[in-house]
Amino acid sequence: MTRTLVAVMSPRWDAWQSTTTPTLVVYAEHGMFTDKQKDQLIERGRNVSRVDLAGAGNDAP
Predict the structure, then answer these.
(1) Rounded to the nearest 5 degrees, what angle is found at the Cα of 14, between the Cα atoms of 28 and 9?
(2) Is residue 45 a contact partner of residue 14, using CB atoms and an 8 Å limit?
(3) Residue-wise pLDDT tens digits, 3-56
(4) H-type helices in 1-61, by residue range?
(5) Which residue of 47, 53, 56, 59 has the smallest Cβ count within 10 Å?
């Protein structure tokens, strides 16, 4: 289980930056990502829209 979590938590910037499909990223106000992490993902994407869920406590999968 630890190996799986470590693998999933590693950034895959090459794959993300090469994605051209329109992508909607949904964040929760009180989710697990910092504001810096949220901004970085959006900035590094190609065709990304962002929605923030006010008052929500979980990031949408």
Answers:
(1) 45
(2) no
(3) 887 778 778 899 999 999 999 999 998 888 899 999 999 999 999 999 999 988
(4) 2-9, 13-18, 35-44
(5) 47
Supply the pTM of this predicted model: 0.74
Residues whose CB is less than 8 angstroms from the CB of residue 52 and which lie 6 or more positions away in sequence, other chains included: 26, 27, 28, 29
Q: Residue 49 carries which side chain, given as an amino acid letter?
A: S
Contact predicate 59/26, CB 8 Å: yes
Q: Which residue type occupies 21?
A: T
Q: Are 45 and 12 contacting, i.e. CB atoms less than 8 angstroms apart?
A: no
Alpha-carbon separation of residue 4 from 1, 14, 59, 60 (angstroms): 5, 20, 20, 20
